[in-house]
Amino acid sequence: MMKSKGGAELAPPVNLTLITMNTHFNLSWSQGARHRGANVSFSVQYVPSFKLLNPGTQWLTACENTPHTWCDLTPRKLYFQAIYTLRVRAHRGPLRSGWVLKEFCADKEAALGPPSRVDLAPAGALLDVTIWDPRSSTNGSMKELYPRMYYRVVYWEHSDTRSPDTVVVDTHVNTVTLPDLRAWTWYCVSVQSRYDFYSKTSAFTTPHCMQTEGAVPWWQILLIFSLSGLVGFVGLLVLLYSGLYCYRTAKDTLFPAVTLPPHFQAYLMDLSPGSDAPRLLTPDSESELTCDRLSICPQVVPLEVHLPPLSASTAPPSGLEADARHNRQDSGGSGDSGVYSTEGGSGPPRHCSHDLPSLGTEEPWDGGSTALLEPVSLEPVSLEQVSLEQVSLEHRGLKAEAAGPWGVRDEGIMDMGV
């Protein structure tokens, strides 16, 4: 141990401890109380113990001038069954502390780790447990280093109301089936690694829980079948309703029940150039002026002729009246009161059965008929009488060529001796 100029000594590290798990090794120590917080570094060296018998043995350096109070020896790949001697010292500037030694045998002192993985699988009313070996620093199985390592399986029925009754099963294989389990029951399992030669035991794994299976009761089968049928029936109804709704919607849209009147349909379906049905216009379309000839025909109003009643001023001449009276007396016994006439002087005569008032009475004629008279025998008249009759007709608003004597067309009276 070296001393400083003031006589102070540099204290060596204390409490050397190895923290191990399978093949992971970590050496740790504590700094002396007098130099705690000072700028102190450390060095770690190792050598197989059997080489210390030779005076010229060379130590191997694991950590050099590290400020930490630990050193990882895992990368050095120490032989697992060998015994090593480790030493540590402190440095502060030119000062050096003394070496502190410690022996280490990994096979004896390294801690054993738990299984790296545990899987559960139902096997009917039982459970299959699959155990994965602990892994080394090189990702190898620890069974390569501990061939007699085995596992302790602890399982219990999961319950929240009472303390569990644990059952222990030891096995050297990696797959084990737990016995004496009940169907449809939850069980929890935890596994521990063990090596009896150095009495090494690992920590237990985190509990894994799973429910066992078994024969399905008949009521569960019936319930599942009923629920499946109900769900299928409801699904079928929904599918049919959806299809019917879509069909009706499409039918009402494409083929509506209310159709346009036929004349509207003909109007909209008219695609002729002259049709005024609405259609899309293109940018190149030009408006056309279509004109049709329109003829206006006046309404034909039938001509009505009204003759005023006869008066004294329009009475026929005395001689003509006497002749007419004489002719009525001669034809009174014939019993025929019609007028025979032919239109245009040809064809059979027409018979009119309308009765007319007598021309020989003193009562005035009411003018109810302008074209029907009793048949009379006319005597030859003079030119003066014809002129008087023509003047009388013109006074009443009739032309001579439109009516014969006494309101009868000349061509409509049969030849009766005129």
**Radius of gyration from CA coordinates:** 72 Å
Our estimate of the beta-strand percent is 15-25%
Mean pLDDT: 76
Q: Could you tell me how far the N terminus lies from the C terminus, measured between alpha carbons in angstroms?
A: 191 Å
* Share in helix: 10-25%
Most strands sheet: 5 strands, antiparallel
Core attributes:
418 residues, alpha+beta, five-stranded antiparallel β-sheet, 5 helices, 16 strands, disordered N terminus
Question: What do these coordinates show?
Answer:
The protein is of the alpha+beta class and 418 residues long. It has five helices and 16 strands. Helix content is 18%, strand content 23%. Strands 3, 4, 6, 7 and 8 form a five-stranded antiparallel beta sheet that branches. Strands 11, 12, 14, 15 and 16 form a five-stranded antiparallel beta sheet that branches. Strands 1-2-5 form a three-stranded antiparallel beta sheet, with no helix packed on it. β1 (14-21) and β2 (24-30) form a beta hairpin. The model is unreliable at 1-7, 324-365, 367-374 and 398-418 (pLDDT under 50).
